[in-house]
Amino acid sequence: MTAPMEDRLRVVLREMADEVRPSPPPAGLEQRAAVAERRRLALPAVAVVAAFAVAVGAVALLRDPRREFNEPAERPPKIFKLSETATSTPGRSLVAVLASTPGAVGGRALQLQPALGGPAVALATSDWVATAYSQQLSWDGTRVIRQFDSEADPRLEIVNLEDGRTNRLRGLRGTCPQLSPDNRRVAFTDTNDRLAVADARTGRVLWRRGHTVGSCNMLGWSPDGRLLMAPGDPEARVLDDRGRVVDRLGQKEGVNAGMSWSPNGHSLLLYDGVSGRYLIRDVTSGSERVTQPPAGALKALGWAGSRIVWLVGEPGDQRLVTTNEAGDGPRLWMRIDAGDRPVDTVQWSRDLSGRPVGED
Amino acid sequence: MKAREDEAFRGLVAARWGALVRTAYLITGDKQTAEDLVQTALEKTVRHWASVRRSDAAEAYVRRIMYREHISRWRRLRLVELPTATLPEPRRAGAAADQVEDRMVLRDALMQLGRRQRTVLVLRYFEDMTEQQVADALGIGVGTVKSTAHRALAHLRDVCGDLVSAPGGEPR
Questions:
Q1: Cis link prior to A234 (omega < 30° from 0)?
Q2: Which residues in B lie closer than 8 A to residue A13 (C-beta atoms)?
Q3: Which of A150, A202, B41, B71 is the most buried (most CB within 10 A)?
Q4: Is the CB of A19 less than 8 angstroms away from the CB of B170?
C-alpha cells in the first residue's frame, strides 16, 4: 500500500533534519550586527563608487576571452544503473562510466547517460574499434574518442554521439587519446611513447615532444584548451599549445584526464605518488595544498563545479561523493548501480555553454 | 545592547541554534547555507532586540526573518546534489534498499521545488504549522499557502509517482 505523500514527506524531512550536525553557534553576533548596521547606514556614500567599479569590471569581463564558469550545466542522474542495451546514437551525454569485467582490462563497453533522459545505455562498438581500451567523453558530451585494444595496432576513432558517425583517424596510432575542449585537437601518446597532438578532423600531427607520458588516461586539456597537462617520466609537465613546457609538476599525475583542471582553469587536482596525497595546485603561483579524501574514498575523479568528486565505496555499493577543496563537507552526488563490477572511472560533460543550474 | 539583554540573546542562540539550523537546512538544502541564513536572521533580530525581548516571541521573530530572507534572497545553487551532513549509509539489499532509494528520489524532488514551495512544505510538514501560522510567518495570504502547498505536493506525486510503500510497509 502506498502511503500518502504527506506522510512520506514527514518521514523524509525528519530524516534529513536528523542528519544535520550543526556547527557551534558563532560568537559575537551582537558585535557583528552592530558593525553591519554601521555599514548599512554608510551605504549611499559607497553606492556611486560601487556602480562605477561594476561598470568597469563588466567591460573587463566582456573582454576576457577565457570564460569563467564554475557550474555544470545540467544535472546528472542520482542513480546511474549500468545497461545491457547498446546504441551508437545515445545523443549528447552527461555522464560516462567504465566498469571492469573481472579478469579483463580492455573491451569494456562505455556506459552513457543521455542528456535527454531515460536510462543509461552502452555505447556500441564499431568495425574500426571492435574492442576499446581507452574511451573518453568529450567536454561537451557530444563525442567519445576511443582507442582500439591492441598494442600492435592502437587505432583511434571519434564517435559522434548525436548521429553515430565515426571519424577514423587513419594515419594515427596511439594510446589514451584526449579531445581538446573544442573537439578540434586530440592529444595522445604515440607508439614511441612520445606526447603528440593532432588535428581531430584530419589526423594530421601538429606537434610531438619527447616527453614520455606516464599513466594512461591522465593527459588533460585545460578548460580553455591552451594548456595540456601530461604525467611523465621523470616528471609531470604542463605544456602550451605548441608543446613548450610552461610548468613542471614533479612526480605527480592528474586524477582523471581533463577533470584534473578546475572549471575555471585556475587549479589542478593532482595525486602525489611519493606522499600518497592529493594536492590542489594553483596554476599561476605553483603553490600546493593538501586535500583530504572523505572516508571510504578509493580515488579522486576530478572537479564538478567548485567541488571535488570522489569515488567511494566497494563494488556493489559505489558512490560519487563531493567535498569542498579542503576535503570537508561530504555530500552524496550519485550512486552507481553496477552490480558487483568495480567502477574504474566516471566522467561527466563540462558544457562550455556556462549555463548554471539555477533556482526558481 | 545592555548586559541583561546580551545575556538573554546569547541564551536564545545557545538554546535554539541547533533547531534553527535544522529547519534552515531543510529549506535551503545545504548546511553551510543554512548556518549562514540563521546567522543573518539572528543578526537582524539583535538589532530589534528591545522590541522582541520575550524568548518565545524572539524565536518566532528569528524564524520569520529566516523564512522571508530565504525566499527573497537571490542565490544560485552551486551544485545540485543531495546534501547530507555525514556520508550516506551503504546500500542495503532488498525491500529496505527500495525504500531508501524511494526516499532519495523524494528528497531530490523536494530539492527541485522552488524556494517558496519548499519552505511552505517544511513549515507545514516538519514544523507542523497550520496554514494560518505559515501565512503569518511568510507574510502571505492563507489562500496562497494552500495553493502553494497543493502545487508542491502535486509535483512531488508526479515525480515520485508510484514509488513503493510507506516506511515499514511492503513494496508493491
A1: yes
A2: 26, 110, 121-122, 125-126
A3: B41
A4: no
Contacts of B76 in chain A (CB under 8 A): 71, 356-359
Q: Are A145 and A112 in contact (CB under 8 A)?
A: no
**Amino acid making up residue B29:** G
**Residue whose C-alpha cell is 563540462:** A350
Higher per-residue confidence, A83 vs A26: A83
Task: Tell which B residues from 58 to 97 touch A, by Cβ distance under 8 Å.
Answer: 75-88, 90-91
Q: Is residue A4 over pLDDT 50?
A: yes
Could you give the CA distance from residue B106 to residue A54 in angstroms, rounded to a whole number? 41
Q: How many residues does chain B have?
A: 172
Q: Nearest chain B Cα to A70, which residue?
A: B78
Helix axes B115-125, A5-19, angle to 10 degrees: 90
Whole-number average pLDDT of chain A: 80
Report the 10 Å Cβ neighbour count for A328.
11
Q: Tell me the nearest-neighbour CA distance from A161 into chain B, angstroms.
A: 25
CB contact under 8 A, B110 and A25: no
Tell me if B77 and A359 make a contact (CB, 8 A cut-off): yes
Give residue A143's pLDDT band: very low, low, confident or very high (50, 70, 90): very high
pTM strictly above 0.90:
no
Please identify every stretch of chain B with a pLDDT value under 50, giving residue numbers as ranges.
74-93, 162-172
User: What own/partner pairs with CB < 8 Å and gap ≥ 24 does B52-58 have?
Assistant: B53/B5, B53/B8, B55/B8, B55/B11, B55/B12, B58/B8, B58/B9, B58/B12
pLDDT at A200 > cutoff 90: yes
- Is the CB of A11 less than 8 angstroms away from the CB of B162? no
Contact A88, B118 (CB under 8 A): no
